[in-house]
Specification:
The chain has one domain. The chain has helices at residues 2-12, 15-31, 33-57, 61-66, 72-90, 94-102, 104-109, 115-148, 155-182, 186-202, 219-222, 227-240, 248-272. It contains 13 helices and no strands. It is mainly alpha-helical.
């Protein structure tokens, strides 16, 4: 059976099924007008109703020192980018459950292609839409940043930040696909994912510096187990130009290891998933 699949896959090629799954995700994204509208509106609401009011509270030299020389607004924007990658990635697993319910997953999984190509194509499609959302968020932040002191430090730093954004998303979309492969109902999946993502979010340094928890046992240490911590630290440093709290090479290595491990586990879980 495996040899037959491999022979058929050679005839079809690897690129074609990956491209097909990627294209499906892109088409679904652009057909959902409400999703695009909310994607554009959300940064305005979050930055306008959360970041800007709090920026007024964190003023003065003491607060600038606390946020590494950045205003609270400038400190928060890279954290917001990473948070979007976390939530978009982990919730990407719900598309697996939807495809199960509508029968699409059963159809593609009996096709003469390996399941690895299916998960790669699906992940690349979700990565593309996540980067689009991130660029929209960054554009809105730069607009507000004219008055609230936020700018991109350099083109090189921006490109480096994109690398870390990709690694961060790959890590969490793989986690989401693992969960999507294990759960049978959407409600249970969403409840569990929300339970997991909230501590990941709060223990990442996205909103407050990680050294603020210094001296608090367990919570402080958990920040350094959290892969999002390394994504937030690198993205913030590269975009704003401030020194990273953790060496950038450490951020890269740790995040890369997390990404590789979860991709492998995600591929294994997807390959073992039973579809009725």
């Amino acid at each position: 059976m495996d040899e037959t699949v491999r022979d058929n896959e050679k005839k079809m090629g690897v690129i074609e099924p990956i491209y097909s799954m990627w294209l499906r995700e892109i088409i679904r994204f652009f057909h959902a007008k409400s999703r695009i509208f909310s994607m554009v509106l959300q940064p305005f609401l979050f930055l306008g109703l959360f970041a800007l009011p709090l920026s007024g509270l964190f003023m003065g030299q003491q607060n600038l020192d606390m946020f590494g020389g950045l205003t609270f607004f400038a400190y928060l924007v890279p954290g917001m980018l990473a948070i979007n990658l976390l939530f978009r990635g982990t919730r990407g697993g719900v598309s697996v459950l939807w495809d199960k319910d509508f029968g699409f997953l059963k159809e593609v999984m009996v096709a003469p292609v390996s399941r690895t190509t299916l998960i790669v194509g699906r992940s690349l499609g979700q990565l593309t839409t996540a980067l689009i959302e991130g660029l929209i968020t960054l554009g809105v932040a730069l607009l507000f940043g004219i008055w609230f002191d936020f700018r991109i430090a350099s083109a090189t730093g921006f490109l480096g930040a994109l690398v870390f954004m990709i690694l961060t998303f790959v890590t969490f979309v793989s986690f989401g696909l693992i969960m999507g492969s294990l759960f049978e109902d959407t409600e249970g999946f969403m409840t569990f994912v929300q339970l997991i993502t909230m501590p990941i979010f709060f223990l990442s340094g996205a909103i407050t510096p990680i050294n603020q928890l210094q001296g608090i046992p367990v919570l402080y240490q958990l920040q350094f187990v959290n892969p999002l911590t390394y994504g937030v630290d690198a993205i913030r440093s590269l975009i704003t130009g401030v020194p990273s709290v953790i060496p950038l090479w450490t951020d890269f290595v740790v995040l890369l290891v997390w990404a590789i491990v979860l991709v492998l586990l995600g591929g294994y879980a997807f390959s073992k998933m039973e579809v009725d």
